């Protein structure tokens, strides 16, 4: 099978405007969660993990107004990853017919949809921006990443709620293995911090309402967890055929050893842990590894009462009792469509640097938590292989396995 | 309102909507060929111009507005 490696990373998250600052904040165990402004006063959940650096600091004014916030952060992350891979410096020599994009968002351009609906109601149809449709379409972030980089091998936009980022990476891996591309920029994004999605998730009783202590609200596996904290952010990963990367002397972070994708076929929002177990097993099988080989799992663990423990049971079944878990969502909040991509970056850097970022706020572990967690502070150990899990509403499960290159 | 005042107003709109340098927005300049204003941005320019100059610019008229000068003339006539 064709080997695929990671040669570039990019991100903009509640912890930092790029990968270096995000990773440094993760290792320090910083929370990116804060109180929302006055507009959120009537909401049950009035906290969120907002971007550390506004997109306007990196994109010029005219371009900014043609892009939904989700598209803005997608291209910021993609440009960073492209530069980091060394490909930006030789852009004119890259065969764009062999460059693909797999980039998703969970919800799409909801901020544009809602803002333009306000304009429609208040000022009439003629005032609705002609950029509305390209800004709200769910393939917008993928399309813009493709346009920015000139990708011609195919641009795809997987949409599977909170599994989106991982699913995009899995499809990117497939695209290279099947021979359609030499390089794929893969990832995910989300930017829907607005009263409507917050009210919708709150109506599902999915969000933490620890409004008085924003930084302590996202607490995966803790006995007192009461829901997830919505976050906004994007992650992008340059996937490259290993021999292609070697031929140009590229820096390699890790090898993407395998991916597993399954669906529950069970319920639109309630997870069936069996689906997640099969995703993890398929990732192992795809990589030709066994559970024993896995050192670390960056868990989906969103801080909801039910989901966190179902996943722990699933990891024990699929992988074993020996792995070191972490949930970086304790710091970033839940980046929805961006989660799989940003957490994959954390898993990749754990493999590269032999350090697992902490899970903060794990003060009173749930009794059922029988696996070791990097609680409180980062843990140094040799990470030969790390798995990243993402599960989404709709019963989507995607696990990606990264190993030392 | 003089032709020059209309042109200056259009130049401000073009800068806001499409990032056109106001010094470039001269009467002889073509929106698409010289100023790089794409079709969606042209729609925004038209709507903003209608509001600013208090005129109606029908959709089937927009295709005849090739240059900044064409737009200035249309607005000047419509306001008369």
TrEMBL record, chain A:
Entry's EC annotation: 2.3.1.179
GO cellular component: cytosol
UniProt KW keywords: Acyltransferase, Fatty acid biosynthesis, Fatty acid metabolism, Lipid biosynthesis, Lipid metabolism, Transferase
The keyword Transferase belongs to this UniProt entry's keyword annotation: yes
Gene Ontology molecular function: any one: 3-oxoacyl-[acyl-carrier-protein] synthase activity
Active site: 162
GO biological process annotation, one example: fatty acid biosynthetic process
InterPro entries: 3-oxoacyl-ACP_synth-2 (IPR017568), Beta-ketoacyl_synthase (IPR000794), Ketoacyl_synth_C (IPR014031), Ketoacyl_synth_N (IPR014030), PKS_Beta-ketoAc_synthase_dom (IPR020841), Thiolase-like (IPR016039)
Catalytic activity: (9Z)-hexadecenoyl-[ACP] + malonyl-[ACP] + H(+) = 3-oxo-(11Z)-octadecenoyl-[ACP] + holo-[ACP] + CO2; a fatty acyl-[ACP] + malonyl-[ACP] + H(+) = a 3-oxoacyl-[ACP] + holo-[ACP] + CO2
One Pfam family hit: Ketoacyl-synt_C
Pathway the protein takes part in: Lipid metabolism; fatty acid biosynthesis
UniProt domain Ketosynthase family 3 (KS3): residue ranges: 1-404
Source superkingdom: Bacteria
Family matches, as SUPFAM superfamilies: Thiolase-like
Function: Involved in the type II fatty acid elongation cycle. Catalyzes the elongation of a wide range of acyl-ACP by the addition of two carbons from malonyl-ACP to an acyl acceptor. Can efficiently catalyze the conversion of palmitoleoyl-ACP (cis-hexadec-9-enoyl-ACP) to cis-vaccenoyl-ACP (cis-octadec-11-enoyl-ACP), an essential step in the thermal regulation of fatty acid composition.
Family statement: Belongs to the thiolase-like superfamily. Beta-ketoacyl-ACP synthases family.
Protein name: 3-oxoacyl-[acyl-carrier-protein] synthase 2
Organism (species): Actinorhabdospora filicis
Automatic annotation (TrEMBL), chain B:
MF (Gene Ontology): acyl binding; acyl carrier activity
Gene Ontology CC, one term: membrane
Family of the protein in this entry: Belongs to the acyl carrier protein (ACP) family.
Transmembrane segments: none
PROSITE patterns listed in its UniProt record: CARRIER
Modification after translation (UniProt): 4'-phosphopantetheine is transferred from CoA to a specific serine of apo-ACP by AcpS. This modification is essential for activity because fatty acids are bound in thioester linkage to the sulfhydryl of the prosthetic group.
Function: Carrier of the growing fatty acid chain in fatty acid biosynthesis.
All residue ranges annotated as the Carrier domain in the record: 4-79
UniProt superkingdom: Bacteria
Protein's UniProt name: Acyl carrier protein
Pathway as given in its UniProt record: Lipid metabolism; fatty acid biosynthesis
Organism: Actinorhabdospora filicis
Gene name for this UniProt entry: acpP
């Amino acid at each position: 099978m064709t080997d695929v490696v990671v040669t570039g990373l990019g991100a903009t998250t509640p912890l930092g405007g790029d990968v270096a600052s995000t990773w440094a904040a993760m290792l320090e165990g910083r929370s990116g969660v804060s109180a929302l402004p006055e507009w959120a006063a009537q909401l049950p959940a009035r906290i969120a993990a907002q971007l550390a650096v506004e997109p306007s600091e990196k994109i010029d004014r005219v371009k900014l107004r043609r892009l939904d916030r989700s598209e803005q952060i997608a291209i910021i992350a993609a440009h960073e990853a492209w530069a980091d891979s060394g490909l930006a410096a030789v852009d004119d020599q890259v065969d764009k017919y062999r460059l693909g994009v797999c980039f998703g968002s969970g919800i799409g351009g909801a901020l544009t949809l809602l803002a333009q609906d306000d304009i429609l109601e208040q000022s009439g149809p003629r005032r609705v921006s002609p950029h509305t449709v390209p800004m709200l379409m769910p393939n917008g972030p993928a399309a813009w990443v493709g346009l920015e980089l000139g990708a011609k091998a195919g641009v795809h936009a997987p949409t599977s709620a909170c599994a989106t980022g991982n699913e995009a990476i899995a499809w990117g891996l497939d695209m290279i293995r099947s021979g359609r591309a030499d390089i794929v920029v893969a990832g995910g994004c989300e930017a829907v911090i607005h009263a409507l999605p917050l009210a919708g998730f709150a109506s599902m009783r999915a969000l933490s309402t620890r409004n008085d202590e924003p930084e302590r609200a996202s607490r995966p596996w803790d006995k007192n967890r009461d829901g997830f904290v919505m976050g906004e952010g994007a992650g992008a990963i340059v996937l490259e055929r290993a021999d292609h990367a070697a031929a140009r002397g590229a820096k390699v972070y890790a090898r993407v050893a395998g991916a597993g994708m399954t669906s529950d076929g069970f319920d639109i929002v309630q997870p069936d842990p069996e689906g997640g177990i099969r995703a993890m097993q398929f990732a192992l099988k795809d990589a030709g590894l066994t559970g024993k080989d896995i050192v670390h799992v960056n868990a989906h663990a969103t801080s909801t009462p039910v989901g966190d423990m179902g996943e722990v049971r699933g990891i024990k079944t699929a992988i074993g009792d020996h792995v070191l878990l972490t949930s970086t969502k304790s710091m970033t909040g839940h980046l929805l469509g961006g989660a799989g991509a940003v957490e994959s970056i954390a898993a990749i850097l754990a493999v590269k640097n032999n350090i697992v970022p902490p899970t903060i706020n794990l003060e009173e572990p749930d009794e059922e938590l029988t696996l070791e967690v990097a609680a409180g502070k980062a843990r140094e150990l040799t990470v030969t292989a790390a798995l990243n899990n993402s599960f989404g509403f709709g019963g989507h499960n995607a696990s990606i396995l990264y190993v030392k290159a | 309102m003089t032709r020059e005042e209309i042109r200056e107003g259009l130049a401000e709109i073009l800068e806001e909507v499409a990032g056109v340098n106001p010094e470039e927005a001269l009467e002889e300049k073509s929106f698409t060929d010289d100023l790089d204003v794409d079709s969606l941005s042209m729609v925004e320019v038209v709507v903003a111009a209608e509001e600013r100059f208090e005129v109606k610019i029908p959709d089937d008229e927009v295709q005849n507005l090739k240059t900044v000068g064409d737009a200035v003339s249309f607005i000047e006539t419509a306001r008369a």
